[in-house]
Amino acid sequence: MPIFDYDLAFSRNHGITSATDQARLKNATYAIAGMGGVGGDYLITLLRAGVGHFKISDFDEFEIANFNRQYGASMSSVGLKKLDIMVKLAVDINPDVEITTYDSGINKQNIDDFLTGVDVFIDAVEFFEIKTHRLLVNTCMERNIPVIFGVPLGFGAGVLVFKSGGMCFDDYFDIDYSTPLGLQALKMAIAVAPAGFHLKYILPTAFDLDSRKAPSISSGCKLVTGIVISKAILALLHSQELKPLPHYTCYDARLNRLKNGYLWKGNKNPLQQIKFLIARKRLGI
Fold first, then answer.
1. Which residues contact 239 (CB under 8 A, 6 or more apart)?
2. Domain contains 1
3. What's the whole-model pTM score?
4. Helix (H) or strand (E) holding 29
5. What are the backbone dihedrals phi and psi of residue 280, each rounded to the nearest 5 degrees, phi first?
6. What is the CATH number of the domain that holds 203?
């Protein structure tokens, strides 16, 4: 049985990270809400960067429908709790890692404990749980904890950063919570990826937002993981390099298009309001 050696395990990071950077990663605490479509991949990628402490949450179990994108989904994990599987995988990479788990998801009752001592929060909550996103982001901003939020979109990704000096959740997304879920989700989607590259090739019939249905593919999830975790590491080591909302990043690997944009006034931007009406008509909602 080999003996784990932290310095050797993550020695190839050096040159990209310094010895001081690596020590900060080892001692840092990252919180990740959600271990599904991208959350499990976030955990594993941060582990391989050398992060030593985590708080993670999920209340779900793996199923066969998860196979196209979720890190821990396999025949041997079907029916098992996502948290249990991901912790097992994490400890197999770094036996010294410290992980605190929250198996009922995150809510008003446990969010204080979940975020205590956290350096960076990564939002991997199911996209359609909009009020949970709002609760987590707002609480983090109150505590000056940077938030990285990314969504896979076809062969691409949209990524946002919430931090001090940037727009808050409500001002940016401008969601009317009295409307049906599909309209709320559409508001979120067009603001996560204002460039809308993915709309050039994803079939509108693949979406049923009121029923929480949207297409995904593993390469898009891997792409968003790379961008989100890069920004999450920068949030700890070089926070001044991160531009908060209304700045955004959109990249599509199929179209090979990148946009680092600035969405003035968020969804209240007149062009965004036109996009919303067009997207609503296209999706028939």
1. 146, 163
2. no
3. 0.97
4. strand 29-33
5. -65, -40
6. 3.40.50.720
